[in-house]
Amino acid sequence: MNKKVNTLLFVLGATLFNILIAVISFVLFTIIFINFIAPHIPPSGRSWGFNLILLASLAVSFFVYRIVLKLLISKVNVEKYFDPIFVKKGLKKNNTTNP
Predict the structure, then answer these.
(1) Is 82 in contact with 6 (CB distance < 8 Å)?
(2) What are the CA-CA distances from residue 99 to residues 33, 54, 91, 94, 95 (Å)?
(3) How do residues 18-29 score in pLDDT, each as one tens digit?
(4) For the ranges 16-25, 30-39, 68-77, which has the lowest average pLDDT?
(5) Of 60, 56, 38, the residue nearest 47 (C-alpha)
(6) Backbone dihedral region for residue 19 (phi beyond 0: left; psi -120 to 50: alpha; all else: beta)
(7) What's 66-88 look like in SS3?
(8) pLDDT in tens, 77-96
């Protein structure tokens, strides 16, 4: 596989990982909320709880993603296996052939 395919697979895998972490944390926070917090608040205030759960699950997935990404970057030589996604317009790849 070349660098572009590796980059595409990495981005797809990282996106799926981030979504999976968000869903898992949402389910976990929802279970905790329903079992321990919801019985102690009035029904009119429970809708705010689910909004907070959604925000908390997104925040948790963001932080877990950052930690795992830093770990991966420290263990894998990123420049060797992945192609940069965004390249400045003024910079071109080094051309080894002479004009």
Answers:
(1) yes
(2) 67, 57, 18, 13, 10
(3) 999 999 999 999
(4) 68-77
(5) 38
(6) alpha
(7) HHHHHHHHHHCCHHHHCCCCCCC
(8) 888 888 887 777 765 555 55
Contact indicator for 85, 7 with CB cutoff of 8 Å: yes
- Residues 42-64 have a mean pLDDT of 93
Could you tell me the pTM of the whole model? Answer: 0.78
**DSSP calls for 18-81:** HHHHHHHHHHHHHHHIIIIIGGGS-GGGHHHHHHHHHHHHHHHHHHHHHHHHHHHHHHS-HHHH
Nearest to 18 by CA among 70, 66, 65: 65
Contact 6, 81 (CB under 8 A): yes
**Does residue 57 contact residue 25 with C-beta atoms inside 8 Å?**
yes
